[in-house]
Amino acid sequence: MPVHKRTRLSPSERRTQLIELGLVLLQKKSIEDISVEDIAAQAGVSKGLLFHYFGSLTEFQAALVSSASEQLVAATEPDLTLAPIDALRAALDNYITFVEQAPNLYISMLRGRSATSPKWLSRLTTHATASPIASSRYCPRSVSTTAP
């Protein structure tokens, strides 16, 4: 992976760049094996700048898991124009493809330190209940976020 030349970016662009570089590294390494030095070197920035945007390595890892999870949710969003069985088949195919293409990323989503953070679990619950499928013909009763 080439090291990026130092470039001035807006805060939003820099944060996005750091997350994208982290996702690329996750294709080769586990989340626990990615260091601040790895990311800083790839981005052409100081380690301090990474901490400026994320505060800690754990927060950076949480941002990676969040981004990866959003990609998985988008990839498996059912096509509501299809018959239910076809929509399910397509969503499952996309899920399996995601896992096959990025096994380290998937494992990090499930078992990484940030996978059980209250902030992330809250975001996941919010997304699941706001999904079009939760209010569609595929889910005739409302979805509850509380245990029965």
Topology:
Layout (H helix, E strand, L loop, with lengths): L10 H16 L9 H8 L3 H8 L2 H19 L8 H18 L1 H9 L6 H13 L18
Helix pairs in contact: 1-2, 1-4, 3-4, 4-6
Helix and strand pattern = HHHHHHH
Query: Sheet with the most strands?
Result: none
The total beta strand count reads: 0
Mean pLDDT: 78
- Kindly estimate the percentage of residues that lie in beta strands according to DSSP: under 5%
Helix content class: 55-70%
Total of helices:
7
Subunit organisation of the chains: single chain
**Cα gyration radius (Å):** 18 Å
Q: What are the segments in which pLDDT stays under 50 over at least 5 consecutive residues? A: none
SS content category: mainly alpha
Task: State the separation between the terminal residues, measured CA to CA.
Answer: 49 Å
Shape: elongated
Structure in words:
There is one protein chain. 61% of the residues lie in helices and 0% in strands. The chain has 148 residues and is mainly alpha-helical. α4 crosses α6 (103-111). The termini are far apart.
Brief rundown of the structure:
With 148 residues, the chain is mostly helical.
Question: What features would you highlight for this structure?
Answer:
148 residues, single chain, mainly alpha
